[in-house]
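Standup notes
- DV: blocked on the single-chain target, sequence here:
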Amino acid sequence: MEIEDVKISRKKPVYPVGSGLLKYLKMYQRDSKLPLAYADLLNFQETVPVMDKNGQDTYWEIPLYPPHVQDQLYDQLKIVYAQLKASGNTRIVQHKVIEKIEFCAFGNTKPFRVKIVNRLNDVYDYFYIKQADASRIYGLELEEILSPNQVNYLYDRDTLVEEHIVGIPGDVFAKTHMSSPDYNQTRIAKEFVKFNERCVISLLGDMRAYNFVMQITPDFDDFQFRIRAIDFDQQFYEGNIKVYMPQFFKENYPFVKLSMEHLNEKTVLQYQQEERSSIVHRVRSERHRIKDLRDASKTQQLSTRAHIEQLREGYAKFYDNAQYIHCQSMTDIIELNVKNVIRQVQL
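- DV (later): unblocked, structure below
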């Protein structure tokens, strides 16, 4: 495995949801009639920076709203939470209050993070309101179909609502948890290899350590680990193939180093094959859904022609497969990736 400072486009355009994707979202019940729009949350007067416990800037800010605007937003956000979590049943928010809203101008979709608290027991949850970006929605859907993870989100016009994905941020885990004597280092390395393989196949880009979380599950004799992506803004946009390989980002060096120390070439190939087999099983069970998603993606532009040409050449070289040169879109590349995985598993 290698490390380098991979360059990506900092300002990827936000692609609107096209008619094909809108039809798909309605078919699979991802659309909703929300009581507010993303733009409503932009009606703040000023912001206050959010600092972490060490006094470092988190890149999040607390927007300050006029009292009458805030009261209305809080009521609407409780309804949004009920729609996201309970198909609109507002009984689940009877004892909940919105504690705070935070805003991040740093991200492509400039998200708002909402904290909602049960006032009876202080149990809290988060959810996000973002600009609707077609690329991100395709990333969420591919995560649902090709990964072992489920995602929960809603779309309405120019607004995207996403459930919070629980876990320890990858960069925090690497600094404070990875070397724990209670954790099997080989299991962590194995999960990073499998995560890397999923990203390569699904064209999920920019998986630096702060863009994924580590979920830890105690088992009867050990701990199980799963890496989950939390940022889908760089779904199949960039032309550099290394953007879709977490192993190349310098922020992921602790995971790469761990893999090099605890795995050999034979075990890496074994874990890659395991992940490919899992993807094949998921594709077979969701073959109609992935076909509908592919058809929807072909109806709109999601990257530049230059990026598509660069990426197809990169995959042709990486897999030593000239078929990639004929791909006309990013989803053509994913489709060929999946077909090749199916062929490899069947051999």
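- Follow-up: The chain has ten helices and ten strands.
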